[in-house]
Automatic annotation (TrEMBL):
Residues 230-249 are annotated as: Disordered. Pfam families: ETF (PF01012). It comes from the Bacteria. This is Electron transfer flavoprotein alpha/beta-subunit N-terminal domain-containing protein. Belongs to the ETF beta-subunit/FixA family. It comes from Kushneria pakistanensis.
Length: 269
């Protein structure tokens, strides 16, 4: 257990952690996803809780090696819901969670491969009718079906929340770092492979996915003969100039303003 991790009382709590295949940002090799590993770490620090891992995707050698990174954290078995490539995993995960009925579901905020939209927990919560907590930093205690948790806010702030279980919570880099994966437990861990019917993700099949390229930064041309003025222009922060602050507006007005901005930027047509 990392030195900054604290054990929370959660006797009898059934926790399911949804894990995904990660990708190293430099080498692009498959690995355990950082945020999902932090979710596993948080689950393991809950004293008295029963922790299970669940993954929906392909069962091949590359994915198996990545998932063994989670088993090396001290997990005996991972439940693998086998799916075809580019399948919509929401239906199979919804069915599995409804059948296993965990009280708390933990997962990373977003995946490191695939769409990586971060919308999966919200789709699952909508299908199951459960509340969602984003940016979970810690679980303080669980009593009488109510969890007291800390939610991470910008600039290192925390907010204490009480949420009725069952619930889904997303974990990001504000949570404690995951422990190292041990080779022995990773090799001894087992896979409970369960074939399931796959539903094609119709939207994803129409996309063209390619590696992102770093675009060159456009430099501002300074028309000045003074070295002092040129230095000030280079060091000054550029202002967007197109920002707009909305105060005391209705949800409909806010949504309309966002929709208008997306149309202007060419995101929506």
């Amino acid at each position: 257990m990392p030195p900054d991790a604290q054990s929370s009382s959660a006797t009898g709590l059934n926790v399911a952690v949804l894990v995904s295949i990660g990708r190293h940002p430099l080498t692009a090799r498959t690995r355990r996803a950082d945020q999902d590993a932090r979710a596993v770490e948080m689950a393991l620090t809950l004293s008295g809780a029963s922790v299970s891992l669940m993954h929906a995707g392909q069962h091949d050698s590359d994915n198996e090696e990545a998932i063994r990174g989670y088993l090396g954290m001290g997990i005996d078995e991972v439940r693998l819901l086998e799916q075809m490539p580019q399948a919509d995993v929401v239906p199979v995960l919804t069915e599995a969670l409804r059948a296993s009925a965990p009280q708390l579901v933990l997962t990373g905020t977003r995946a490191e491969t695939g769409e990586a939209s971060g919308i999966l927990p919200y789709l699952l919560a909508e299908a199951l009718g459960w509340p969602v907590i984003n940016g979970l930093a810690a679980v303080e205690k669980v009593e009488k079906g109510v969890a007291t948790v800390l939610q991470a806010l910008p600039r290192g702030k925390r907010r204490r929340l009480r949420v009725r279980l069952p619930a889904i919570a997303t974990v990001d880099t504000s949570a404690p770092a995951a422990r190292q994966s041990a080779f022995g437990p990773a090799r001894r861990g087992e896979f409970d492979v369960q074939p399931h019917a796959s539903e094609a993700d119709s939207a994803l099949t129409q996309w063209q996915i390619q590696p992102a390229r770093k675009r060159p930064k456009r430099l501002k041309i300074v028309k000045s003969s003074s070295a002092r003025d040129r230095f000030k222009a280079a060091a000054a922060k550029s202002d967007g100039g197109g920002g707009q602050t909305l105060n005391d507006v209705t949800p409909e007005q806010g949504a309309e303003a966002i929709f208008k901005l997306l149309r202007e930027e060419g995101v929506l047509r």
